[in-house]
Structure formats: structure tokens, C-alpha cells
Amino acid sequence: MLRQDSHDAPLFGEDDDHSRLRKSKIRQPLASFFHLFFRTSAILVYLLCDIISSRFIACMVTIILLLSCDFWTVKNVSGRLMVGLRWWNQVDEDGKSHWVFESRKTHSPNRTSSAESRIFWLGLIVCPIFWIIFVFSTIFSFRIKWLAVVILGLVLQWANLYGYVRCKVGGRSNLTSMAKNYLGVQIFKQAMKKTEGP
Asked: Which residues cross the membrane (predicted)?
């Protein structure tokens, strides 16, 4: 099940025709703050953990709590308030899982500002890159005890990134795949006609 209006909430660095109408000031400062606070705090605690505390369990629990708070905040609050996007999973009566991706309509009175959109997408894209680097540095430095933590960080942040990209461009990618399938069938038919000969 896919519900979506894909004409609003620009991706990071993207401009649209309505950008002149949007205010550049931040309309949701609390959501913007917590959108970046939990994810940057988890990264900083991971980087400074050996300096802050010598206790591995305390650092691990702190990082996991920050990552969990970040996942919940981005998925349930900041995505909806800052860019007008939301996604979730629902299970129907038959037990089948359906992913739902939504975006706010363009003519909504509470449109997002371009500054909030940039903050949202910048935080959403840059932080998973740090966790990818942490996974490889953990493997190559043989700090295997941290591997579960950095993989959890990567998975949680990647899940939000994937969900919001699907909200924004999910309908377009479905149309693209349909067009590719149609084109592939047409090329196959032409190839079959040529192999049959005159």
C-alpha cells in the first residue's frame, strides 16, 4: 500500500517553484534541534567513549539509547513537522505487512521552510555515512566488541533514510520500474521477431 503526493518537501539542496513562497526561517526549532541532537550525540559519545568512560557497557547502553531516541524522533516527529513526510508499517487482518509512505500536499497551509528541509536532509544523509565509516574502522582496527553497536547505528539511521527517500520519490521509482519493464518487453519482442526471420 503506497499513498503519496510527491510534489512537496524538497530534498536537501533541491529547489522548487514554490521556494519563493516559503520562509527561510525555522518554523519548528525544537524539532530541528532534536532531529540533530540525538544523532550527533550518539556519534560524539561513540568517538569520545574511551575518554569519557572506561566502562564499555555504560558507553554501549548510552549510544543505543541515543540511537533509539533518534530513530523514534526522526520517524515520528521531525519528518512530519520539518518536511511533511511520514512512513510506517501496518499489519492487516490477514497478517500481511504493508509499508505506507506519505507526503503532505503542496497546498497545505503549514508548509515547511527551506531551511528546515535542508537541516532535515543534511542530518538524514550525513550521519549514516559516519556509521558506515565506523563499521569499517571497527573491523579494520579489530575492535570487534563495538561491531554490534556500530551496525545497530547504521541500521537504524539507514532505515530512516530509506523510509524518507521512499516517501519523497517512491511513486516516481514505481513509475520508472514500470517504464523499464515495458521497455524491456518491447526490446524482447523486437529481438524475437528478428530471430524468427522473414
From this structure: 30-48, 54-74, 119-140, 146-165
**Separation CA 186–CA 197 (nearest Å):** 17
Q: Identify whether 152 is part of a domain.
A: yes
DSSP sequence for 137-180: HHHHTT-GGGHHHHHHHHHHHHHHHHHHHHHHHHHHHHHHHHHH
Helix (H) or strand (E) holding 41: helix 29-52
Q: What is the per-residue pLDDT across 90-140, written as a single tens digit (0 to 9) for each?
A: 888 888 888 888 877 664 545 667 888 888 999 999 999 999 999 999 999
Kindly state whether residue 6 falls inside one of the protein's structural domains.
Answer: no
Q: Considering its fold, how many domains does the chain have in total?
A: 1
Cα dihedral sign for 107, 112, 118, 120?
negative
Q: Which of 135, 124, 154, 141 is nearest to 64 (CA)?
A: 154
For 99, the enclosing helix (H) or strand (E) is strand 97-103
Neighbour tally for 169: CB within 10 Å: 16
Q: What's the pTM value of the predicted model, to 2 decimals? A: 0.70
